[in-house]
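User: Could you go from structure to sequence for me? I need the amino acid at each position, not a summary. Structure tokens:
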């Protein structure tokens, strides 16, 4: 895993992995916010953008529950 990611970003990565393991489906932004203990889906959206910039994840845009691949 990339160095330089924040604790909050680690929480989001863990939430993605746990949700996929439990349900076999990708989580929505609201589900990720709840699992990671964040106040809003927009916080998740921002953190996912940062993780993508850091090369930790890839994701498809403009799809509901688009796949988020943790690298």
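Assistant: Here is the amino acid at each position, in order:
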């Amino acid at each position: 895993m990339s160095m330089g990611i924040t604790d909050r970003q680690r929480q989001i990565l863990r939430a993605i992995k746990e949700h996929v393991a439990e349900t076999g489906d990708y989580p929505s932004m609201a589900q990720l916010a709840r699992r990671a203990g964040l106040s809003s889906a927009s916080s998740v959206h921002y953190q996912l953008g940062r993780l993508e910039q850091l090369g930790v994840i890839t994701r498809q845009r403009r799809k509901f529950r688009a796949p988020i691949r943790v690298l």
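One structural detail worth keeping in mind: The mean pLDDT is 86.
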